[in-house]
Amino acid sequence: MHRVVKARLTACLFAVLAMSGISTKAHADEPLLGFLYTTDLLPKHGQEVEQWVTWRHQKAGGQFDLLEGQTEYSYGATDSLQLSGYLIYDWTQAYRNGPDGTTTPPEPYSAYFPDPYRHFHSTKFIAGAFEAIWRVRSPYTDPVGVAFLFEPEIGPRFQELQVRAIFQKNFLDDRLVLVGNATWAPEVRELPGNPAAAPGSGTDRPNTNIETDVNFGIGASYRFTSNWAVGWEVQNEREINRFALFDHSQWMGNAVYAGPTIHYANQHFFATLTWWQQLPIAHNYMDPSVVARGYDNDVDFEHTRVRLKIGYYF
């Protein structure tokens, strides 16, 4: 009789430990998706190093590639507040990639004015950034998880502030995760005068360029084994002149990206790979000439985006 009771108690203990392990794993700062955020954070005093590489590829024609690197360190200040610092740096090449057949650098290289009919390539330090994510509701204890992200970036002649609302709902014992993100991100660039600009155009002398990104994204991730998950992400990105959020005539770009994600994680390591494709339904109200065959080819839009994120937990 005592052996039966002992066996049952042992089985219950292992079940509790197993459930605890699953719960702890689910609460870790595990990036199930490549571009969208979840409300999962590091536990208090948890630490993580993370490396992102994002490849942006293909414009209207010619050649275009942009590699964005991001090296990040994160710390769990509390169970509901995560702090991060990181560096952003880029490499690009372009050749006759614009809708008019000229060489057009991507937006981070707006201060460069290359020969419009020759190859352009360059590397650049973009910015240093601080990020704080505050979770006010957990998807494990509340009907819906809610978190807010605050992220200022400061670089040479460049400043950006990103504010993001993050929503998460879990199903099927947390194996299925649904996510929604809403982002507001104004940015300021100090630009030199363009020597090829018409006199008196305003861009022929040093000027300040102000734009606002407004993005809405949804995603889903399904964990089909203890270490692997697959998902899908969709995001609508809107580039707006200055702060004119409600004036369609000032919307410089309106594009939708979508694609699959695969994610792997164990106790200390994770990797997430996402492939996004721009859908041929874009609009550009200020300059319709940058839209070709339904794709926006402006300086901050491209046809394909691939992101790899790898990280290590301490």
Describe how the helices and strands are arranged.
Layout: H1 2-27, E1 47-57, E2 63-78, E3 81-95, E4 120-137, E5 145-155, E6 158-171, E7 176-191, E8 207-223, E9 228-241, E10 251-265, E11 269-278, E12 291-292, E13 295-296, E14 304-313
Antiparallel strand pairs: 1-2, 1-14, 2-3, 3-4, 4-5, 5-6, 6-7, 7-8, 8-9, 9-10, 10-11, 11-14, 12-13
Question: What do you see in this structure?
Answer:
Keywords: Signal. This is DUF3187 family protein. InterPro entries: DUF6662 (IPR046603). Pfam families: DUF6662. The protein has about 325 residues and is mainly beta. The chain has a single domain (about 30-314), classed as Porin. About 10% of the residues lie in helices and about 55% in strands. The protein has one helix at about 1-25, and strands spanning about 45-55, 65-80, 80-95, 120-135, 145-155, 160-170, 175-190, 205-225, 230-240, 250-265, 270-280, 290, 295, 305-314. Strand 12 (about 290) and strand 13 form a beta hairpin. The longest helix has 26 residues, at about 1-25. The protein is globular. The relative contact order is 0.16. The model is unreliable at about 1-25 (pLDDT under 50).
Span from first to last CA? Answer: 44 Å
Strand fraction equals over 45%
Give the mean pLDDT.
91
Q: Tell me the Rg in angstroms.
A: 22 Å
CATH class: Mainly Beta
Strand order of the largest sheet: 1-2-3-4-5-6-7-8-9-10-11-14
CATH T-level topology? Porin
Top keywords for this entry?
314 residues, mainly beta, Porin, twelve-stranded antiparallel beta barrel, two-stranded antiparallel ribbon, 14 strands, disordered N terminus, DUF3187 family protein, DUF6662, signal
